Amino acid sequence: MAKTRTKPPKKNASTGAYEVLVPGLTYPTDPATVDRLRAGENLPWAQRGMCDPHDVGDRVDDIPKNYLDDALAQGLVRRADTPDGGA
Amino acid sequence: MAKYGSDSVGFLLVDGFDLTADQTEVQESAEAIFEETTGLGVAWRAEKATGHQKCDLGIKGYYDDEALRTVEALVPSIAATRVAMLAHAGNVLGRKFIGWQAALQGKMERVSSKGGITKLNTHFTGAGARDEGVLVHILGADTGSSGNTESTSVDNAASSAAGAVCHLQVTAVTLGGYDDVVITVRKSTDNISFSDLVSFTAVTARTAERKTVAGTIPRYLATSYAFSGSGTGQSVTYAVGVARG
User: Fold this and answer.
1) Is residue A8 scored above 90 in pLDDT?
2) Which residue, among B150, B184, B195, B225, would best test binding to A if mutated, counting the most A CBs under 10 Å from its CB?
């Protein structure tokens, strides 16, 4: 069991703000971590650099660029800078 | 697939009571109800499933009147409905468990015999669903202020479409000044990001709960816990299982 912690946004974070659509959303903020997890590497939780859990309606700007499409496609977030969420 | 011996039984939990060490036999069953549909002019009896099912749970064990053992757990509870979990294939992440939504405790018997240890046997009749799923948090203690099992998530190999039933059994809680602890089942499509599937009612003492979730259940499941407020020396001992629909 690892304690929740927050890392500062990475340079490769997505641009613009996104609104969280699901409760308790967490994700790695480092794009390299996304790549390693996507490749099937079993990283210990403490090495994943996960963000703190976000509530529905929170605005986030630290989603890694290489995970943004997945986050949008899974309905985890939507663009926050348009009234209809960019639809 | 493997065979399992009695040493493999991970736990039997009833309303947060851990009865494992006092039991010598657990017998559970599920049965589909049929009705005869035989008409005239046929030789062989016909049967058709009515769509109803029933389940039973019988346990045999020792009469033990120490705190939190069989006497406290079972003697005062005749006619009460209990939430129960059995890990017959081991207290191992991803292994099967059986859960009972409402095990109606219909019979309790003490058995004293010459030269023997006094026994306490109990029979439960299913008054609700019987769920078969997998453990997503094995019975064990967490002692941080918060944490999760996302790095050891349970992989179902695919998502499922028909909802799920989530079982929680909390056998011990030390709040250490905290207000309560919330235990949540977490879900993920890709094992990269996670979000809440369902949170159980905030826990302040030994308890058990069964919750249902509708809709698609993603491929990966984990759990998290978080103590609310502040304190020191906190601990929560619990098991969580999820049965996909």
Assistant:
1) no
2) B195
Q: Do residue B147 and residue A34 have CB atoms under 8 angstroms apart?
A: no
> Which tens digits make up the pLDDT trace of B149-205?
999 999 999 999 999 999 999 999 999 999 999 999 999 999 999 999 999 999 999
Helix H, strand E, coil C: the string for chain B is CCCCCHHHCCEEEECCEECHHHEEEEEEEEEEEEEECCCCCCCCCCEEEEEEEEEEEEEEEECCCCCCCHHHHHHHHCCCEEEEEEECCCCCCCCEEEEEEEEEEEEEEEECCCCCCCEEEEEEEECCCEEEEEEEEEEEEECCCEEECHHHCEECCCCECCCEEEEEEEEEEECCCCCEEEEEEEEECCCCCEEEEEECCCECCCEEEEEEECCCECCEEEEEEEEECCCCCCEEEEEEEEEEC
Cβ B57 vs Cβ B126: under 8 Å? yes
For residue B92, give both structure tokens: 């191992």
CA distance A27 to A45: 11
| Domain boundary residue, one of B131, B153, B178 | B131
ipTM of the complex: 0.85
Interface test with B, best of A3, A18, A20, A26 (most B CBs within 10 A): A26
Q: Are residues B26 and B98 in the same domain?
A: yes
The reply to whether residue B186 touches residue A24, judged by beta carbons under 8 angstroms, is yes
> What is the domain-level CATH number for residue B165?
2.60.120
Tell me if B233 is assigned to some domain: yes
Residue type, A43: L
Distances (CA, A) of A72 to A28, B95, B216: 15, 33, 17
Structurally, chain B folds into a number of domains equal to 2
> Coil, strand or helix: which one is A21?
coil
Assess whether B84 and B168 both reside in one domain: no
Q: Which domain holds residue B58?
A: 7-131
